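Dear colleague,

Following up on Tuesday's group meeting, I ran the structure prediction for the three-component complex that the binding team flagged. I've pasted the input sequences exactly as they went in, so you can double-check that nothing got truncated or mislabelled along the way. The structure tokens for the whole assembly follow below. Feel free to forward this to whoever is handling the docking comparison.

Inputs:
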Amino acid sequence: MTATTVSAARQSSPGWLKNLRTLVSGQEGALTLSLVLLVIVVGTANPRFLAQQNISDILLNSSYIAVAAIGMSAVIISGNIDISVGAMIGVLATISGQLSIVPGMPIWISWLVPLIVGPLIGAVTGFLVAYLRIPSIVVSLGMMSILKGGLILATGGVWIYNMPPEYKLAQQSFLGLPVPVYFMLVLTILAALWMRYSPSGRAIYAVGGNKEAALLSGISSRTVLMRVFMFNGLMVGISSVLFATQFSSIQSTVPNGLELTIITSAVVGGVSILGGTGTVIGATLATILLRAIGNGMIFINVSAYWLQAVQGTLILVTVLIDLLRRRRQAAQIRG
Amino acid sequence: MAVTERSSQLTKQSNPIVSRLRAVVLSKEGILFLIMIAAMFILSLLTDKFLTTNNLLNQLRLVTEIGLMALPMTFIIITGGIDLSVGSIFGLSAIVMGFLWQDSGWPLELAIIMCIVVGTIAGFINGLFIVRVGVPPLIMTLATLALYRGMALGVSEARSARGFPDWFFDLGQRQFLGIPSQLWILLIAAIMVGIILARTPFGRGIYAMGNNELAARFSGIPVRLYKLVIYTFSGFMAGLAGYIFTSRISTTRADMGTGLELDVIAAVVLGGTSINGGSGSIVGTMIGLILIQLLKNGLLLGGVKGDATIVIIGAILILAILINNLVQRRTGGD
Amino acid sequence: MGATLELEGINKQFPGVKALDNVRFDMAAGEVHALLGENGAGKSTLIKIISGVYRPDGGTIRLDGETVLFNTPREAQQRGIATIYQELSLYPELTVAENIFMGHAPRRKVGPVDVLDWKAANTKAQEILTSLHIHTLDVRRKVGTLTVGNRQRVEIAKALSLNARILIMDEPTAALTEADVEQLFSIVRLLRERGVGIIYISHRLHEVFELADRVTVLRDGQYVGTKLVSETSENDLVSMMVGRTIDNLFPKLDTEIGKPVLEVRNLYRRPMTRGVSFQLRAGEIVGLAGLVGAGRSEVAQVIFGINPAESGEILIDGQPVTIKHPGQAMNHGIAYVPEDRGTQGLVRQMRIRENVSMSVLRAIRAGIFINRREERSLATGMIKQLNIRAYSAEQVVNKLSGGNQQKVVVGKWLASKPRILIMDEPTRGIDVGAKAEIHRLMSELAKEGLAVLMISSELPEILGMSDRILVMRGGQVVAEYSRAEATQERIAAAMMSETAGNGAPESETVMIDESETA
């Protein structure tokens, strides 16, 4: 009952104020605020944190995770999860790296192949989830083992060196920022627009929020889920290219715990693990924030050994603040 | 409606013993058991080193830690929750034990107790936040996965603790009554926990919560208390497992048990516990656990390269759930 | 824009069950045609066939005289048939406008790309709502924050956005407050004037008489008959539905009213419980009336310890007690049959046996274990006592009809041998037969000395069953009537007066000036 009063109050305030309020009270707003706060605090304590090189490093190191987190956000919003993304990045990065050192092979092929193989792996996962109705956590757990084992089996975990310099996309800069940063920004914006303004994007929220209802309004959850997992595969493919081209060598194994970093980014970014809500912008902001926290700790002389503990605490704090904020909002609705 | 009619007709037609047997065989655990027997048969054809008492017991020794953590994980997943932090708790408890003894000069006995206490406290903290603050389990344990591992790193400063006295290895490396010592602990724990889940009001409450938490609360089941208990229990078992593992491999490092949570969850899920909550059993979890390990070992002995075994296990995990889904759907089970 | 619909010789077979057997149904443009029948009579199957969810095994469907066959709900929607389901099918996280236009939102071109035009969607959504005389609903609000009544309006708007010519409403009033029901009725009449045909399913007969032009009755999957509402009576319809006459829907027995067993004094739990005081005596049925949102269920849940009281006193047999969680309430002999049996009352995936024993698990222990034999005999006893139609105590609750599910909830609480029984909407959404049975049981329990507090949104039920009636509004008890002095008008007035001033726009239309008599 009081809800109507609240909305009436909302209506009466001017438009720009309302927009500002929704922005700040939203997850994106909270993340931006935390980011600004962090920059101020750490930057005051140690101005070297604000050096252009360092900022650019933070963004560079966020890029491939943020891109993967975009795909993960879509998966989680659809009410699923994909634990195999870390293994996928490992496999795709290795494929890409191997292709780049094949003599005579055009470089663009080594960039392109992961973007094809990624969606194909996604399609397999999606098929098992959507059509054979196996819970996604089980499918991706299995997929993770398969990819992990398959990779080591095929390559023996060797290091790949001597990639041609023109292969190293992520080491290029444009207007002072590393190329992957542009990938991160552009993909985030495109994905946000897709999920907000296109019917196929909105359908993801529908399926994650209320599968039954989605069916009744003529949305096939199977098609949507297939699309979501293939989209995730594509994002992981791009992420793996950014990852592979960032370093001077690639180890053909699976980076440890990468999937958890990606899931954490999506979740801290406000994607509800129960499905149905969240945005990719939040996920990208969260990725940058988490990176900045990790990086900032070094600048205020937190012992390297305690870095992860502090980071863990901060994740927990972020989650708690968000939770309390949501609860307050819910209380407002109830009156 | 329709299904009710049909299954009631089925039960009416066949005689009670046959239908009972049918129910057992076609249950999730029954099917999994058949898969396990089939796998063992095939593996024993590949190599005669596989089906020996010694080998089998030794393999079970290797999975004791995962098995212990899989017990509370079964409870947790049945309630619809998850605990991703067990691997980190495992590492943290073992590190605390090692360094209390090695650096702080505590008696080893006391350090062992602290190992379990630390695990229990870590689990209790998970439970407390989940119950009191209402943090979703996945998010809470995702955060403490990082936090507890970070604490282990901080405490150890990337060093390892080693050089434990000989008696310390009794549990992890020796036998008791012809069976690996730690296997006794798993055996007794599994039986006790299995009975608790299947037969007590507590166990019934766990299932009720997993299917409909609100209705369970409205029926007077102390939902929050039960949750607190199972997450604390999960920490306790992770601590215990950390101790056993250290005793088995003689040393402890901060990165010990990284990724272990996924092995634990895989055993539980393969064992037929629904990841959405509401159903599952300890018997299933134990079969899932053993199946994974025997496959790993049998394939290895059969000459399959070490890393290919992981591939096969991944495939088996998906396949087993798929088969079970199909059978359950056809027999009208949920 | 009106459409005519004819169904003839419709058959539908599910494994083991003939759901529909040679059923016919027809409707004219701009007609409100009620569909009646007990649960399991085949109403749901029939509307699912009309709306394209199921395909019939046999028979013909003609729309505007043309034979049609729908393979998916979408095909039916495209031909102008829309359904408003009992379980509302909205997305709580999306806005009103997004929900209305889910799947067919207006598009606009941005360069070469076709994107959804939310601005246009908002405007159009607002237009549709305005055309239904709904002015207080912000189309940018998330649906999850709306009241049930408003959500339903969104559903109706969604149907109209699809140019629905035939609207199927499955128990639209089941979860509505009286005020919302009034507004729904005026919307239905508005639509009828516009030529929209409405298939109206309800268990509440008086609604049929108030709203419908014709009524068709189904029983056990068979067509019983179609009548003009003006030429039939409630008794006629009931006997058509159940195949026999129900002599008394409210079999209230006279009882010896004893000492107060439960008393609450100045109970507070904000926002919905504000200073509630009343007494409940042994052998007495007290009806608790009020609009949805008046705080009735909230008070019950405070007493039962689900949301414990912030202040105030609860006395059992005159002794003050502390109730912080349901377990304590149960120790004091309180039982609570909740409002929503699906989410609060039952674990539907579990068996009857397991549900019935859930309230007494500690009492039927042998050592630390559940005594299986005792558990089974308890459940079989309840099945017998409450006449639950199930083939055994091992049956999964999900597969029972609504009425039988409700009896399982009641059975669970009778198993705890309560002295105080709180029943929250005990007969919502169940068929007439089961309803009469639950009423009889309630009456018998009171006769045996139980104190019963019955929360109900159906005034006939309140009037028919209660010894005494309390009316709540805004979290407070605002009126009390004895059985003798209570009338529908008095209670309704007490329920609704002043609510408009509290900022509930829904109730503006039903302002009734009435002096409060206590």
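The CA atoms of residues 90 and 257 of chain B lie 6 Å apart.

Cheers,
M.
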